[in-house]
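User: I'm preparing a small set of examples for a lab meeting where we compare how different chains pack in three dimensions. I only have the primary sequence for this one, and I'd like the structure in token form so I can line it up with the others. Please keep the answer compact; I'll paste it straight into my notes.
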Amino acid sequence: MNTTNHAERQAFTRYDGEHHLLYLNEKPATFATPGSEEETGKEIEGFSYTGDMEDGSTIIEARDVTDDNRRAKYIAGLIGKQYTLDAQIALLTNGADTERHARELQEFEAHRAACKRDVDELLAR
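Assistant: Understood. Below is the structure token output for the 125-residue chain.
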């Protein structure tokens, strides 16, 4: 994971036709800008983000994103980083028919809830 500081607040951006970048795990940050030979760097207030990309963002699969479906696409993309579509179908189909399946389903539901919270926070910026 990479944590990077940004002077401007970030939220999301389209990366390419199949991926979007989400700036998650936002925290206030104070950091120094690079200086030059003539001038020292300045300390500024900004934000830090932690994700799998070099700039602190998190890349997700998200095709055909519109304003109307953005929340659903971003949640699905975040869930897909940990659970393949096949794994999601298996978890939901198995339900809680055994102790193991119940535990796996509970872990999946907790992850899904965390993804929803992260996306809702991001879209509220």
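A couple of notes for your slides: Residues 2-123 form one domain. The chain has three helices and six strands.

User: Perfect, thanks.
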